[in-house]
Amino acid sequence: MATDTASDTGTAAANEPIYVDDQSQLDDVVAEQDVVLTDFYADWCGPCQMLEPIVETLAAETDATVAKIDVDANQQLAAAYGVRGVPTLVLFADGEQVEEVVGLKGEDELRALIESYTK
Q1: Domain Thioredoxin: where (predicted)?
Q2: Domain 18-114, CATH
């Protein structure tokens, strides 16, 4: 039942990251979920690769939905959110952008950030 790529809509299982390909898909995920942690990443980025197991754990263990956006494949979407470096994490709560974190952060710090917005 589980798949390696949850590229469905925001209704995909929230216990694994959802791969987002355009603005409308991201808008749907943000509208349908209470808290969304969006990971803007690049395959060639070392810190992004180190962050990947952390965001996968957060997707599985927190109430947040994790959306992953490849900045190379989605340059316009990255530009729309002012992403200048990767990894950049953008947190949405109740449909609004509430936080932006640039660079590699630890699981505990990101978990605390998510939990400060979950009900």
Answers
A1: 1-119
A2: 3.40.30.10
